[in-house]
Design a protein that fits this description.
Layout lengths: L1 H6 L4 E3 L9 E3 L3 H31 L6 H30 L5 H35 L1 H7 L2 H25 L6 H4 L7 E3 L2 H38 L1 H8 L2 H37 L3 E3 L5 H21 L1 H11 L19
Antiparallel strand pairs: 1-2, 3-4
Helix pairs in contact: 2-3, 2-11, 2-12, 3-4, 3-6, 3-11, 4-5, 4-6, 4-8, 4-10, 8-9, 8-10, 10-11, 11-12
């Protein structure tokens, strides 16, 4: 009886025992806490360091200053900020099942979380558009999709997303007094009305996903048609003296690689939104039972640099140059990263 009484109070506690308005805190074993925080440290380290390498590589090496790589740079910046700001706060709240960082940081967290997710979504739409023109209309791509145009599109996405999300969060009362906003002390919740929740789902998830899927279906249909021509006897003879066909083949390979990045995003985000819809959750708490979907969502920012390492030889070579400090040499930005054919 004494053992049972000593263990029972540790099952559930309060986030702030001194307050009657405190949220309940789920208690875990020391081993569980150690395992979860180890996973958190690994995820944060991989996300921050991996995306930092991508940022340094694309920014430093002149050969990587292409429209497509600029989008990857923008995506890496968003993932880097997620790993640096959002991931530690969100995962700590999920592990502790309490929010200990105050109302001000709660508002900052909600803003950055929403904005960076929106920016990532915009970047992936830009990737799909970029690959569509590169594969389906290469002549238009070379004349219209330039570095300067891509700079403007990326800048527009980074200005549009904060503006929209700031208005979205403000109009739903997410920046109100924490005592009025949260049902108990120790909670940081996203408050969304039914109408806003549906409209936000359409504009930030369904519409971008529809564009990405539609464009990639078109891309792979065109790639399949080109492959049949190239594999035919007439196509092979024609390809011998035609460098444009080689260029088209290269663009199709690039589209497939970037398609994997887009697919990874969809596989991480769509299940989370489906779960929210099934659960009928409009007021989504960071300390609620969203642990598994949230982990999968934030895992996307961690996985992207790993995908680059597996898919792009230039990333592997730039990684070696960075860790051997050869990028500190004079004129290192002009090093050829594409000597080996891939």
């Amino acid at each position: 009886m004494e053992i049972a009484n000593s263990e029972e109070p540790q099952a559930v506690q309060y986030c702030f025992p001194s307050s009657n308005a405190s949220c309940l805190k789920e208690m875990r074993s020391k081993a569980a806490y150690a395992a979860l925080y180890t996973v958190l440290v690994i995820m944060v380290t991989l996300t921050v360091c991996g995306n930092l390498v991508v940022i340094i590589s694309v920014s430093h090496f002149k050969q990587l200053h292409t429209p497509t790589n600029l989008i990857l740079l923008s995506l890496a910046v968003a993932d880097f900020l997620i790993g640096l700001i959002v991931l530690p706060l969100s995962m700590t709240a999920l592990i502790e099942t309490c929010w200990y960082f105050g109302d001000m940081l709660c508002s900052v967290y909600k803003f950055f979380d929403s904005v960076l997710v929106s920016v990532s979504s915009c970047n992936l739409v830009l990737i799909a558009i970029d690959r569509y023109f590169a594969v389906c209309d290469p002549l238009l791509y070379s004349t219209k999709i330039t570095v300067n145009v891509m700079h403007l599109l990326i800048l527009f996405s980074w200005l549009l997303s904060p503006s929209y999300m700031l208005a979205f969060l403000y109009l739903n009362g997410n920046f109100d007094d924490g005592e009025k906003l949260n049902s108990c002390l120790g909670e940081c919740s996203f408050v969304v009305t039914d109408l806003w929740g549906i409209s936000n789902l359409i504009f930030t998830v369904i519409f971008p996903c529809f564009i990405m899927i539609a464009l990639y279906v078109k891309i792979f249909l065109v790639a399949k048609r080109h492959a049949k021509i190239i594999n035919s006897s007439v196509g092979r003879e024609h390809m011998k003296g035609n460098s444009s066909e080689i260029s088209k083949s290269s663009e199709r390979k690039a589209a497939k690689k970037l398609g994997i990045v887009v697919l990874a995003f969809l596989l991480c985000w769509i299940p989370c939104y489906i779960w929210i819809l099934i659960a009928g959750s409009v007021n989504v708490s960071t300390t609620a039972a969203l642990f598994t979907p949230s982990v999968i969502v934030y895992l996307n920012s961690c996985v992207n640099p790993i995908l680059y390492a597996l898919l792009y030889p230039w990333f592997q070579k730039s990684l070696k140059l960075i860790f051997t400090f050869k990028i500190c040499y004079v004129a290192s930005s002009f090093i050829n990263l594409f000597k080996d054919k891939h």
